[in-house]
Write a sequence for this structure.
DNA sequence: CATGGCTGCCC
DNA sequence: ATTCTGC
DNA sequence: GCAGAATGGGCAGCCATG
């Protein structure tokens, strides 16, 4: 399939803001994609790589300027000027390629496959890293070569894909609906959404969609395959919170730490960030804490990793904990300097997926597998109540202890990956109340 | 070998 | 993470 | 009210430079 097919669809997407029109445009593109469907769908997400894969090009705007310059023979200054004027690097790329005028008569058209393979190649160069330093110039030339052999409009979108900034108003929801329209006559969006929640890979979901509903539904929650975390809505008052999640509700402290999804598979632990990155290496202490204090060999915990001061055991701000997240060196040393405690608050897998069970059940199961151990593993501070006064009290206590506030949760609700549905709500104080709480604590 | 630009990813 | 926008 | 885009602060790692 020619890349220009994608370009045509993208141009149409660029010209409307109506969601339904976008869905139609994408559905048509998907229907015409044939064997290239998985790659085409990924391109539509704005990056050729699914979120759960640890792959990227290591290229952003500054490097893209160099690439466009290399591809078109214009100076970087010119490219930057065009970028500034048009407010978009894709448009700058398009203009620069247009100005390149002459011959490309003989050069063959870019295919989806070629664009995909080229980017994959660059991503592989990037990930080699470690010991063998990546030759940036070579990397840039690979991508410049792709752009220089493209038509102006293709260049526009190739450029945008390279920096993962398609900005066509197309997100997960639109792609999901388009897959539904293309292969199920607009039905089964729920099944498709689920398949995506569990796989985090639209290439797989697209392929399954083309094969049939059964294949879509076969994409299930799997250990070592992180799912998107359920997100919380903001509310301003306790009353609003109760309105959202119902009564009684589960209330727990919200800590200033890092969200972590912890998978245990046959006793082996892996730790994932909210955006599905594997940070097991960075947190050997978390692995240990789970090995020692979780009584299950096959489960998925939703947790907050919280740092504490090794001297007095007090909480530390996220900013200090963050030193550990991307560590590759001195991990052991930082482990001593910035020790952490795991605070689980949900369980979505226990020998089997349980994310559709009510939160109250999941919490009870969680409590039954957690052995609480000071400075290692402790359930989040929590209570179940319908009383606004009690919630107020917890909010005060949480803030006085230096935490961020509280969460309120619907006891009947299932676990909705990636969704900011009203099953889970966070109450953080505005500045004034924060001052009051801290003053009140002293 | 130190520094600064760049990128990606936590919040 | 928050804030803004168009639907 | 929602999804998508745009934006901010701060961190480590990486690479090019001098």
């Amino acid at each position: 399939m020619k890349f220009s097919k994608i370009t045509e669809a993208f141009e149409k997407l660029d010209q409307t803001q109506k969601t339904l029109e976008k869905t139609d445009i994408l559905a048509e593109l998907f229907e015409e994609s044939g064997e290239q469907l998985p790659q085409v769908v990924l391109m539509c997400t704005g990056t050729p790589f699914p979120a759960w894969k640890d792959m990227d090009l290591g290229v952003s705007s500054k490097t893209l300027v160099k690439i466009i310059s290399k591809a078109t023979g214009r100076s970087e200054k010119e490219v930057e000027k065009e970028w500034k004027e048009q407010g978009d690097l894709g448009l700058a790329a398009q203009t620069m390629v247009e100005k390149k005028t002459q011959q490309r008569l003989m050069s063959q058209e870019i295919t989806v496959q070629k664009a995909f393979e080229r980017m994959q190649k660059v991503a592989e160069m990037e990930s080699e890293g470690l010991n063998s330093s990546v030759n940036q110039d070579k990397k840039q030339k690979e991508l410049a070569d792709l752009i220089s052999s493209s038509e102006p409009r293709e260049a526009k979108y190739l450029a945008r894909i390279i920096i993962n900034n398609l900005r066509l108003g197309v997100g997960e929801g639109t792609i999901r609906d388009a897959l539904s329209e293309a292969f199920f006559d607009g039905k089964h969006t729920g099944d498709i959404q689920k398949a995506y929640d569990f796989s985090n890979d639209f290439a797989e979901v697209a392929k399954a969609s083309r094969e049939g509903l059964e294949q879509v539904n076969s994409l299930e929650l799997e250990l070592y395959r992180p799912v998107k975390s359920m997100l919380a809505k903001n509310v301003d008052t306790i009353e609003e919170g109760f309105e959202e999640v119902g009564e009684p509700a589960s209330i727990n402290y919200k800590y200033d730490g890092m969200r972590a999804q912890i998978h245990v598979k046959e006793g082996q632990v892996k730790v994932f960030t909210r955006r599905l990155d594997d940070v097991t290496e960075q947190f050997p202490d978390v692995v240990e804490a789970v090995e020692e204090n979780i009584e299950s060999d096959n489960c998925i915990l939703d947790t907050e990793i919280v740092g504490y001061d090794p001297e007095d055991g007090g909480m530390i701000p996220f900013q200090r904990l963050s030193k550990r997240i991307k560590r590759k060196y001195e991990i052991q040393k930082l482990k001593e300097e910035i020790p952490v405690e795991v605070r689980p608050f949900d369980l979505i897998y226990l020998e089997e997926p349980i994310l559709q069970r009510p939160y109250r059940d999941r919490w009870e199961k969680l409590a039954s597998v957690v052995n609480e151990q000071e400075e290692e593993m402790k359930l989040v501070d929590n209570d179940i109540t319908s009383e606004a006064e009690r919630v107020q009290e917890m909010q005060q206590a949480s803030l006085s202890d230096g935490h961020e506030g509280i969460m309120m949760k619907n006891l009947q609700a299932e676990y909705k990956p990636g969704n900011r549905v009203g099953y889970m709500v966070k109450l953080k104080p505005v500045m004034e109340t924060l001052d009051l709480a801290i003053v009140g604590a002293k």
In short: DSSP finds 20 helices and nine strands in chain A. Residues 233-427 of chain A form a domain with the D-amino Acid Aminotransferase; Chain A, domain 1 fold (CATH 3.30.470.30). The mean pLDDT of chain A is 94. The radius of gyration of chain A is 25 Å.
